[in-house]
Design brief:
By secondary structure, this protein is mainly alpha-helical. It contains twelve helices and three strands, in the order ααααααβββαααααα. Helices cover 76% and strands 5% of the residues. The protein is globular. 31% of the residues are buried. It comes from Heterodera trifolii. Pfam families: Srg. This is Serpentine receptor class gamma.
Length: 359
């Protein structure tokens, strides 16, 4: 059995793996968002971009459960319910959200890299600059993908079923709920191939995204090295600190995760154009856990490593009271006595030494 055959046969196992990865990461994501909103010290451009990217990340996860994971794993149970849904919820909505979240994620990731570049290159003007452009960036991330994906609602969808008797997949009208093993939401034979257009467009977005981000990363790494050398020889105080270095590494690693997703889209497009449907099926099998790892998992868990202060606040916000008390006790500072108190202590000690001892 080759790798492609194994991938297709291990579809359900890989789906369960993706669920085990995504659900804890999504819960952590939500906890981090609440912590950022609760504490004013995290109200800056980086954490604002973190929340902006978290929205399409979590929206993608919901869409993936709705249109792929649950129908595949629990098709026999959910088939009667999905059969009652209007067509726009079967054809338009799932693929609109797929394209929307993918493109919004790419935009947010590129802006996070740009944010780290300006934090290193112009640290004194960084906060003022991003305070002005952050609302425009939020509008761009949330609104631009709508303009490119709204035609998906014109798509006519269908429920493509897999029967218990291992017969070829058929439309929902030819199957009953007792015969359905699993199903997935697919495109009906439309005059306009909306799904092919979506795959082609997302592939182009993937290429542009990787080129732009690689250029930003090259500038950021070069600027970081220049700043460190400048600090080393001139002993300047505004060199990038350890937190900025970790946040930059965070941005780089999360970019690598999204670049892996982009490569997956490119692979699906190439396999589709070359009519290699076995390759398409294998890539779609790996799609859930790859996208979960590249988006939700890395973005949420890596932030705990990147910022010590944020990790401490998160633990204090969500741990039980006893552990919170122990953490605060460890972080408390012993008060230092003032000069008057120290003089009084010295005087008392001298008096005690001068007092005669009683035999």
């Amino acid at each position: 059995m080759g790798f492609l055959e194994w991938s297709i046969s291990a579809r359900d196992s890989l789906l369960y793996l993706a669920i085990c990865l995504s659900i804890p990461s999504a819960l952590l994501y939500l906890a981090e968002i609440v912590t950022i909103l609760r504490h004013k010290q995290f109200h800056n451009s980086f954490y604002a971009l973190f929340i902006i990217r978290a929205v399409p990340d979590l929206l993608y996860l919901l869409d993936s459960f709705y249109c792929f994971r649950l129908p595949i794993l629990f098709g026999s149970v959910l088939f009667p319910l999905y059969s009652l849904l209007p067509n726009w919820m079967i054809g338009g909505l799932p693929y609109f959200l797929t394209g929307y979240t993918f493109q919004a994620n790419n935009l947010a990731t590129a802006f996070i890299l740009l944010n780290r570049l300006t934090a290193i290159a112009v640290p004194l003007k960084h906060d003022k600059l991003w305070k002005c452009i952050l609302p425009l960036i939020g509008l761009a991330v949330f609104c631009l993908p709508i303009s490119t994906n709204w035609p998906m609602f014109k798509m006519t969808g269908k429920l493509q079923v897999e029967a218990n008797d291992s017969s070829p997949s058929s439309a929902a009208s030819n199957a009953t709920s007792a015969d359905v093993l699993s199903f997935f939401l697919y495109e009906e034979d439309n005059a306009t191939p909306y799904l092919s257009i979506l795959i082609c467009f997302d592939t182009g977005v993937s290429v542009v995204f990787m080129v732009v981000c690689i250029v930003i990363n090259i500038f950021a790494v070069s600027t970081y090295k220049w700043q460190m050398n400048k600090h080393k020889f001139n002993q300047q105080q505004n060199a990038p600190n350890n937190l900025e270095r970790k946040l930059f590494i965070y941005a780089l690693i999360t970019f690598c995760g999204h670049a892996l997703i982009a490569c997956l889209f490119i692979g699906i497009y190439i396999a589709t154009e070359t009519v290699n449907f076995q390759m398409v099926s294998a890539l779609l099998t790996h799609y859930p856990w790859v996208v979960d790892t590249g988006s939700v998992v890395l973005s949420s868990w890596l932030l705990l490593w990147a910022s010590d202060s944020f990790r401490g606040k998160l633990l204090l916000d969500y741990r039980i009271p006893r552990i919170r008390f122990e953490i605060r006790a460890k972080n408390c500072v012993t008060p230092v006595k003032g000069p008057n108190e120290q003089n009084n202590v010295i005087t008392e000690r001298k008096k005690q030494r001068q007092m005669p001892t009683v035999s």
